[in-house]
Amino acid sequence: MSLNRLSFQKPFFLGIGGSGMSSLAFLLLSKGLKVGGYDGKHSAVVEKLVLNGATVLHKSDVLEVENYDLAVYSSAIRLESHPLVKKFKDKGIPLVHRSELLHQVMSEKNKFPSRVPTVKRRRAL
């Protein structure tokens, strides 16, 4: 699937707290997109995503997939059995692998500036 010029505006990340997924989510948030995601775990990364404007769910049964126009998954997601994958497929919403989205975003990177938040680390005393 081709994601021409970031033709989507509301991506949803399945497993948004993962290192690769959260990085892409932060990048798209910095481009002004409305980002949503699901993660089974609460974490500092997920909290930072929420503070930066992402909507993150921890229960898959409450998602209204119609609010999103793209679903992003990683290799950690089992496409054949994940309940959210079925919801997106049933509504005809495109699903793309994280690597495909990363390729598209990187090919468009010079077309608009990004402000990706960084995590400040504390120095050991």
Strand order of the largest sheet: 3-2-1-4-5
Shape: globular
Low-confidence stretches: none
- Which band does the percent of strand residues land in? 5-15%
Mean pLDDT: 85
Keywords: Ligase
Pfam family, one: Mur_ligase
GO molecular function: acid-amino acid ligase activity
Organism: Leptospira borgpetersenii str. 200701203
Describe the protein in words.
The chain has 125 residues and is of the alpha/beta class. The chain has a single domain (15-111), classed as NAD(P)-binding Rossmann-like Domain (Rossmann fold), CATH 3.40.50.720. The protein has helices at residues 19-30, 44-51, 83-90, 98-107; strands spanning 11-14, 36-38, 55-57, 70-73, 95-97. A 5-stranded parallel β-sheet has the order 3-2-1-4-5, sandwiched between helices. The chain is globular and about 50 Å long. The mean pLDDT is 85. This is Mur ligase family, catalytic domain protein. One of its GO terms (molecular function) is acid-amino acid ligase activity.
